[in-house]
Amino acid sequence: MFNAEKFITETIADLKTKIHGKALIAFSGGVDSTVCAALVHRAIGKDLIAVHVDTGYMRKDESKFVVQIMKDMGLNTRFVDASEEYYQALADIEDPEKKRKIIGEKFIHIFERVAKEENITTLVQGTIAPDWIESGGALRDTIKSHHNVGGLPEKMHLTLVEPLRDLYKDEVRKVARTLNVPVAERQPFPGPGLAIRIIGAATKERAEIVREACDIVEREIEHAVEKNQMEMPWQYFAVLIPIKTVGVHGDKRAYGYTIAIRSVQSIDAMTAAYSDIPHDVLDRISTKITNTMGAKVNRIVYDVTNKPPGTVEWE
Prior knowledge:
Elements lengths: L3 H15 L4 E4 L4 H14 L3 E7 L7 H11 L3 E6 L1 H8 L5 H23 L3 E3 L4 H6 L24 E3 L7 H11 L24 H23 L8 E15 L2 E14 L7 E2 L4 H15 L3 E6 L13
Parallel strand pairs: 1-2, 1-4, 2-3, 4-5, 7-9
Antiparallel strand pairs: 6-7, 7-8
Helix pairs in contact: 1-2, 1-7, 2-7, 8-9
């Protein structure tokens, strides 16, 4: 049986021996990086520098929310807006493995720049067990290269520390509750962000479309949960499929993208079952997305695939 209090005590003691001087943590605002930051902050205090990077593929108002969390936790905070840099790097990239690796490498290069400014040699990441298991290596097949594992460059000028490396998501949440961090129950959001919720090239235009669609999916599902219409999913979002179909917008022909709704239940992220969303909730989501997007989106589908054979994210 996993003991969160024992893990916290032992990890803080271990971090005090591993980290000498200042350290930089990649802070996404998800449960993994937030728990990681809380542990390292307890170990080295103000010597921890928390860096949040806006890649341009964040959810609506995500970076503003994350920076506030960092400040509320009393962390030394750095914010980097690298959105245009990422848009340029991914504009013509369609292969999901290449996307993930480019995203991971750019993260490291940004962290190395900040580390040089702050005279830091240690990088802390919130990597958990499913990240490196699915990224492959040794006798394991590569399911998908997680940006914080498969996306790491071969030559990195920072020493990597990963306190949560052997934990699964349910165990991380137990640690989060024990530490009383503000995002203990927050749904997972992938490090590559909306870039892997856009099938094919993750252009700025497509990012803006899927960002709005994700926001609608989240708000409508959360509203349905509040009204006891359905169970709270483990993860729920929208995916942009770069296939255009014919539709009608007003009284004119429209040729727009397709949005897929994805909602699943899981415990440890290794397996998942699609959520049972009531039809009237799906109808509200569909109507709001198509009304909001105008002619840009004219078709909504619901993904009823479990994991396996699918994965939670589409890429």
